[in-house]
Design goal:
Blueprint lengths: L7 E3 L4 E4 L20 H15 L10 H9 L6 H13 L7 E3 L1 H9 L4 E11 L6 E6 L4 H5 L6 E5 L2 E2 L5 H8 L6 E8 L2 E8 L1 E4 L3 E8 L2 E8 L6 H14 L5 E4 L8 H11 L4 E6 L5 E5 L10 E5 L6 H11 L4 E4 L7 E7 L5 E10 L15 E2 L4 H10 L10 H20 L5
């Protein structure tokens, strides 16, 4: 299976709610369409893409040929009517990650790869069973993050309008808006409802933050990766090289709340930590596999611990699964989100675009983590009160001894370092 890596995005980054409909893609679009397809031609183009590429050859038990006949028998007087039918058509697959984007939404998605967006900064998905709109994770230091939204929050209303029966595209159109305006969300968390009024803002995103930390086990490197955007690999490389020059004894890689992003970015970063071994396998509907492997160019072989939680999704799960299966790192925290699907994003003839689920992925040991997620090697649960304190009220405590998951990671890293030292032959 040939994969155009610049067009692949992992499923958990379904939609980020912003003026720029964020999916971290790095796509080269056609800009203006070469010609303006007729509405009916556009409907058929979308149908053909699904027909050729969709991951499930049964189309989730939908008679896809009958769908084509139904929608091509209609008359369309303008593009908006075609857009409505396309969304209806794709909804029959019951796959929230196969979706259509208007030209404005598609262009906005591309602009995000510059590292800047306008919006509230949350990644949104639709629960496959309940069809409810669910927050995958707020992007760190964005208005949604500062307001207190958390992973797994269910959005019940947007500015007073019920989200029942609403798909992610409709939610995006209601939530996005001009910088400086506000949107009101009613969310459900642990059976209780809470209202948030969140300002929209211009957001500049740097995916990597890092620092040296003095701990009981010595000087360690701490790297926080917020998302797998197009520039994440470059920033990660700089972070590791700088920390290596400072002679750190080991690393803690923090993927908590990282909702995912580009497939190639997760592979690129995995190669910085792994010298050999499989990173991920993607499997299409014909069962053909594309394996990504390490290339012998790891930047460090020092002990590594990875922090994960329920907001660690898709690309985060590829990276943490690869490091865990290859015994390169131990995972500390809680079970991850559980999204093991890959989308291809492509432009359409009139300047609009679509994402279609084309494959699922397995970890090196063949684990299909879709819906289950990855279990950490060492589980450290946080109470709701601890989550609120660490991630919202007292952010300066994050990645300190007052952060129970980080403290356990330091302890685990110390044991790894001790084992490594014991197995290293003494020099005479």
């Amino acid at each position: 299976m040939v994969i155009t890596k610049s067009r692949l995005v992992l499923g958990a980054t379904a939609v980020t709610l912003s003026t720029i409909a964020f999916t971290s893609l790095g796509i080269h679009s056609r800009g203006q369409a070469l010609f303006k397809a007729s509405p009916k031609e556009l409907v058929d183009e979308v149908w053909q893409v699904v027909q050729r590429q969709y991951v499930d050859g049964t189309f989730n038990q939908v008679d896809w040929q009958a769908v084509r006949k139904e929608y091509l028998s209609k008359s369309y007087s303008n593009q908006q009517e075609a857009y409505k039918s396309i969304r209806e058509m794709l909804k029959k697959l019951e796959d929230p990650y196969t979706r259509f984007m208007t030209p404005e939404e598609f262009k906005s998605m591309q602009v995000e790869t510059s590292g800047e967006l306008i919006g509230i900064g949350i990644t949104l998905s639709q629960d496959e069973k309940t069809k409810k709109l669910v927050v995958i994770a707020p992007i760190e230091d964005t208005p949604a993050f500062k307001a207190g939204l958390l992973s797994k929050d269910i959005i019940l209303q947007i500015d007073g309008k019920s989200t029942k029966g609403m798909d992610t595209n409709q939610a995006v159109s209601l939530i996005r808006g001009e910088a400086g305006t506000k949107v009101t969300l009613l969310i459900e968390r642990n059976g209780q409802q809470k209202q948030f009024q969140i300002p929209r803002a211009r957001i500049e995103i740097h995916p990597v933050k890092y620092s040296q930390k003095q701990t009981p086990i010595g000087n360690i490197g701490y790297i926080r990766l917020n998302q797998f955007s197009a520039n994440a690999g470059k920033e990660m490389q700089s972070a590791i090289k700088d920390l290596e020059s400072k002679k750190v004894t080991g690393y803690i890689l923090d993927l908590r709340g990282n909702p995912g992003g580009l497939l190639f970015s997760s592979v690129e970063i995995a190669r910085m930590w792994l010298d050999k071994g499989t990173i991920v396998s993607t499997i299409d509907r014909r069962g053909e596999q594309e394996r990504e492997v390490a290339n012998g160019r790891a930047l460090t072989n020092k002990p590594l611990v990875v922090l994960v939680n329920k907001g660690s999704a898709s690309a985060s799960e590829i990276l943490s699964g690869a490091l865990q299966d290859n015994k390169r790192a131990l995972l500390v925290g809680t079970q991850t989100f559980g999204k093991g699907l890959v989308q291809s994003v492509r432009p359409l003839e009139d300047g609009s675009g679509m994402a279609v689920t084309i494959a699922k992925y397995h970890t090196p040991n063949g684990r299909d983590i879709n819906k289950h997620g990855i279990d950490p090697d060492v589980t450290v649960n946080l109470t709701d009160a601890q989550l609120q304190e660490l991630w919202l009220r007292e952010r300066d405590k994050l990645a300190t001894s007052a952060d129970p998951q980080f403290a356990k990671a330091v302890e685990v890293l110390g044991k790894q370092a001790a084992v490594k030292d014991a197995s290293t032959p003494a020099k005479n």
